[in-house]
Design brief:
Layout (H helix, E strand, L loop, with lengths): L7 E3 L9 E3 L7 E6 L3 E6 L6 E2 L8 H4 L14 H11 L7 H22 L1 H9 L3 H13 L6 H10 L3 H16 L4 H14 L5 H11 L9 H10 L12 H17 L8 H10 L18
Antiparallel strand pairs: 1-2, 1-5, 2-3, 3-4
Length: 297
Amino acid sequence: MHYAKGLRVRHPLVPNWGIGAVLEDSADDTVKVFFVGAGEKKLCLRELQLQIVNGDGGKHPILDNLKINADDGLRFRSLPDSIQRFLTEYPGGFHGDKFAADERDYKLHAHQLMIELLGKDQFRRLLHKKDYDEICRRALKVVTVTNLIFPHEKMSLKDALDSGDHKRRFSEVLYFHLFGAADLKTRFLEFREFLEDIQAAKWTIASYFLFLMYPDRYMLIKPTITKDAADICAFDIKYRPELNCATYKAVLRFSEFLRQALVDLQPRDMIDVQSFMGCIRPDKSLKSCGKKTNGHS
């Protein structure tokens, strides 16, 4: 039987491999298939007939956003294997004391500080008074309370906000970014344009404030961590180092996929998901999986 590229299939003898996507048209009695539970497999078809999966049954977030030949030679790891790696470091999972101390508490504190200092009502009152100095002071306080943005990036932002005009523009653009009625793309692109103008266009800064204000919806992008986690899962986040909305939206899709896939561990928000990404990185020793002291979670 011929299997065309893109066809969704299952292996009849190995059901735990899950759904697969044919990577190339079958030829010479062989076919390459990527299975969500096992990665890429080259199968001999002489004594095997794959089960074809049609319609909604063949849909899967990984296969719908599949990335093969990941950058940096990272190898696919099944989600159960990644979960086991995470639980080796945090036996209590997302709700254990160790995870709270290492990963969650300080990020949750930053979220609460963000609401306290730059919640919509407080922010609007400061804008009305044109108190741009105070808005920038509060924003920088929220930035410095965690190590999620690298020190040199924090310094670039702080230096850029020494200018009075930059303070005004930052205040107005950040309010629109957080609370504007426009769609996400419009708000993101306006914030990006300002960050480019002040030479602070980094993924961490571009995604930090939305992540802390709305951790139930938005994800922090730390490029190495986010990209490595996506590559391990073979999920294409369309990564480019330059700020762009396609990458940001793809990261949100990947984050929501993980959140749903980790449902048995009961992640509360994207804070938990972001910490999970940091823990499954291949170059992280399990003893320093994502602690707040390492500066990279």
